[in-house]
Write a structure and sequence with these properties.
The protein has 444 residues and is of the alpha/beta class. It is 36% helix and 14% strand. The protein folds into 2 domains: 10-215, Rossmann fold, CATH 3.40.50; 235-438, NAD(P)-binding Rossmann-like Domain (Rossmann fold). It has a 6-stranded parallel sheet with strand order 5-4-1-6-7-8, sandwiched between helices. Strand 9 (187-189), helix 5 (194-205) and strand 10 (212-214) form a beta-alpha-beta unit. It is elongated. It starts with 9 loop residues before the first strand and ends in a 15-residue tail after the last strand. The structure holds nicotinamide-adenine-dinucleotide (NAD). Residues 14-20, 46-49, 52, 95-98, 110, 113-114, 117, 137-138, 171-173, 175, 277-278 line the site of nicotinamide-adenine-dinucleotide. Nicotinamide-adenine-dinucleotide (NAD) is lined by residues 14-20, 46-49, 52, 95-98, 110, 113-114, 117, 137-138, 171-173, 175, 277-278.
């Protein structure tokens, strides 16, 4: 069977969230390649969430990854929740979520459902073009070949590398980071055979300016992605543990890190609240697979435990400082700046700031939360938390806690910070954004 024409193929993106929508957007932009060939691909973005499709079609991307006020949807891009519309596509790219369940085990149901959709489409397909299935969702090594491909083969009654080919190319975007967008991040690709891997390599070259790297196999590409985030998680866990130790030693952790960073090979990681659906989740995909084959991954799990426990440590520390300052916990007023899982990003999923607030809520404190990025309706519907977009003017608090380093907070001046705190109050600055002259307490 003939492979699709890279410049003119029809592509479906299955799952239009943080990863899928920017990908659909870039792939559908008409563009010229170096050799002056015009690329015009029909791209159909498919998502089971009708509300998401309606919003995108109205020009609202609530992930903030594409500013639809400034950029129009490309005319070659169609967004739909009607699965029939993707039946005639040649390329199927899967960008559905891969979360964990309440037992911190991989929840592969969205991925399996996407495979079933593709299997059903391939079963009915009548085309002489080789269909190409590419997975971008983060999974453990082996998931594509051991779980995804068998589902497609069973439902479609087709055989891999005869009737269809398959590849894995992990996404590495960093939401909220305008310096590293899809085109600027080197992409890793892999394929079920040599021709497929080469086709996928050339395909992504058309949209990735930073270059494309061909991994030795699908499993290698899967493993590479999972260790990128596991490494980051563990490095932050080490910094968090050091922050706890130095706090007990009465040494300012920031001063220690500043001094240590003067050595050329000291890695500049910082302590922090690890949330979201990547760094705090992906290591569990790796540990799941390791345990499945009989190896207990002590270090990776220890790091996860430390990172997950940080909200408890911060709250205990906060109460300790309040006691020392004779501030009654019950009835005290705290202003919390930021609730999303990371800076300049609206995503609330697995935000550890929510865990921290839930713990504070048990102590009868008066909590005011400000986050200009977070979806206030979602925060209320899902977590029963009221979020303000702006810091209330003219009110003073016992404690001001900076939890997320949104740029918006970094622009506040010394005088404005000062006006927010009562005489005996204090700043607990988790993000290093309060000016040093205001003597913020820095524990991380
Ligand atoms: N967000 C990130 O920063 C990031 C970065 C790199 C990799 N990843 C990985 O990429 C994958 C997607 O992440 P995301 O953040 O874009 O998720 P997301 O939750 O933002 O978006 C996923 C979308 O898929 C849709 N969906 C779910 N099941 C579907 C199905 N069967 N058919 C069609 N649509 C379906 C959902 O409605 C949702 O809109 C995950 O595996 C994630 O780990 C995410």
């Amino acid at each position: 069977m003939k492979f699709p024409d890279i410049n003119k193929c029809s592509v479906s993106i299955i799952g239009l969230g943080y990863v899928g929508f920017p990908l659909a957007f870039e792939l559908s932009k008409p563009q010229k390649r170096l050799n002056n060939i015009l690329i015009e691909r029909k791209v159909i973005g498919f998502d089971i969430n009708e509300e998401r499709i309606n919003e995108l079609n109205k020009g609202l991307d609530n992930t903030n990854e594409i500013d639809l006020k400034k950029e129009d949807l490309p005319s070659l891009l169609e967004l739909t929740s009607d699965v029939e519309k993707i039946h005639k596509c040649d390329v199927f790219i899967v960008t559905v979520p891969t979360p964990i369940d309440e037992n911190k085990k991989p929840d592969l149901s969205p991925l399996k459902n996407a495979c079933k959709t593709i299997g059903t489409i391939l079963k009915k397909r009548k085309s002489s073009i080789m269909p190409i299935v590419i997975y971008e969702s983060t999974v453990f090594p082996g998931a594509t070949e051991e779980i995804c491909i068998p589902i497609i083969e069973e439902i479609s009654s087709m055989k891999l590398n005869i009737d269809f080919v398959c590849g894995y190319s992990p996404e590495r975007i960093n939401p909220g980071d305008s310096d590293h967008k899809l085109r600027d991040i080197k992409k890793v690709v892999s394929g079920s055979n040599k021709d497929c891997a080469n086709w996928i390599l050339e395909f992504y070259k058309t949209i990735i300016d930073a270059g494309v790297f061909k991994a030795k196999s699908i499993k290698v590409a899967e493993a590479a992605k999972i260790i990128e985030n596991t490494q980051r998680d563990l490095n932050i866990a080490l910094m968090n543990e050091l922050a706890i130790i130095f706090d007990k030693l009465n040494i300012d952790n920031n001063d220690v890190l500043e001094a240590a960073a003067t050595k050329w090979n000291f890695l500049k990681f910082r302590p922090g609240l690890v949330g979201g659906h990547c760094i705090g989740v992906d290591p569990y995909y790796l540990t799941f697979k390791a345990e499945e084959i009989g190896y207990y991954p002590q270090l990776v799990l220890a790091g996860r435990k430390i990172n997950d426990n940080m909200p408890n440590w911060i709250v205990d520390k906060l109460f300790f400082i309040m006691n020392k300052k004779d501030i009654n916990i019950s009835g005290s007023e705290i202003l919390i700046l930021g609730i999303t899982f990371k800076e300049n990003c609206p995503d609330l999923r697995n935000s550890l700031v929510i865990n921290l607030i839930n713990k504070l809520n048990k102590s009868n404190m008066k909590i005011t939360i400000v986050d200009p990025y977070a979806d206030a309706k979602l925060a209320f519907d899902k977590h029963k938390l009221k979020i303000l977009k702006d810091i209330p003017i003219g009110h003073k608090y016992d404690i001001l806690l900076t939890a997320v380093g949104h740029n918006y907070f970094k622009n506040i001046n010394v005088l404005a910070w000062k006006k927010l705190i009562k005489n005996n109050g204090f700043f607990l600055d988790l993000k290093g954004i309060i000016p040093r002259e205001l003597n913020p307490i820095r524990i991380m």
